[in-house]
Amino acid sequence: MELIAKTAVEVRGLLQKGEVTPGDLLDALEARIAQVDGAVNALPTLCFERARERAVAGGTLHGLPVAVKDLSAVAGVRTTYGSPIFAGHVPQVSDHVVERMEASGGVVYAKSNTPEFGAGAQTFNAVFGATRNPWNTALTPAGSSGGAAVALKTGMAWLAHGSDLGGSLRNPASFCGIVGLRPSIGRVPFGPAADPWANLSVEGPMARNVADLALFLDALAGYDAREAVSLPAPETPYLAAAQAPRLPRRVAFSPDLGGLTPVDPEVSRLCAAAARRLEALGVIVDEASPDFSGAHECFQTLRALGFATAHSAKIGVHDALMKPDVIWNIQKGLDLSGDAIARALRMRGTIMARARAFFETYDLLLCPATIVAAYPVEQTYVTECAGVTFETYIDWLAVAYAITLTGHPALSLPCGFTDAGLPVGVQMVGRWQGEAELLSHAAALEADLGLDATPIDPRGPAI
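Now predict its structure.
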């Protein structure tokens, strides 16, 4: 596992010096997948022949292999979106984010598992089945970028692409003990899309540590004239920011975003301990949160609107092939009144304004990335936490989706383990379009925590 255990930054250095080739890396990955993926089901679609044909040592990634989430089209590669409707679908054109990866020297070799159309933070579907958590294969890795997170933690990937609507990068990062970044709106190309102005879901990088995450963001970020909203790449690479760790001056910590959501006490304790680590380093840490009043209604409404926009044509045609949660979400969107949509849009504007004002005082907001640690793989979603019962399959994601509504960049950083040995991530939220600063602060906390980011072999349940 020597090559597999190296960081993405180290492996890119070997590529640049000519000490390894992209083909060597693909060979190592293919062997590792054959060894461990049977236990976790993270990468159900492989395309090594295509990868070897296209592998060129150049660009930001210099021929480094990357795994792509199965919600994004890769030309000539089976792309199912986790749905039986598309079980045999092979697109002829790649999504913009995949084109950007490949133009930046990334070599696509696999598609990572995801729930149907990304719906729900648990990675299972009727095409490929469930993906399992490598820390305990009886548990889920969360989702919807669950296959990506598992591939990273088991050494089947150095870098993995994901996407995030209500925590789909941050949830599996927390459950699996890796790092996932939800970038700012427009930072990474996300089209083509049914609604080119959509700004809840974003594409983003996942990696084993902050520096690798920054390297991948450098490969993904940049202006794309085909996108309705697109930001230019920074003059200074994000990797430089991550490799220059800098403590924030003042941060806010909130265990529950001002009472917005229940949180498991053990998760809350671990995240609070991470905040205290910064305090011990001289950072001012206040317990504070932006006002997230209205976040539940706002997100539920806008998310349902997005599902109706993207998938309403499937209702009445493919109902038998879609899971009930997807049908429910589409129908919820179709049933929305104009008044409900207008109210949600106004609420989001208010939440964004509150967040911008909050970050005039604070460099970072810290809170849990998820409200629980990994749960049984047979359980489709979290139904209750800390004595609170949830009404829908996405209510338990509020600690992530409230941050989505702000538009601010946010990442999940491993911060410790439960008594059962399961990883927990602290969510670090940065200033508006402040990825460089966020990555630098995350690298500083990561260094102080000193957790081992080395890949692991899948572990069965304790007996």
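The chain is about 35% helix and 15% strand.
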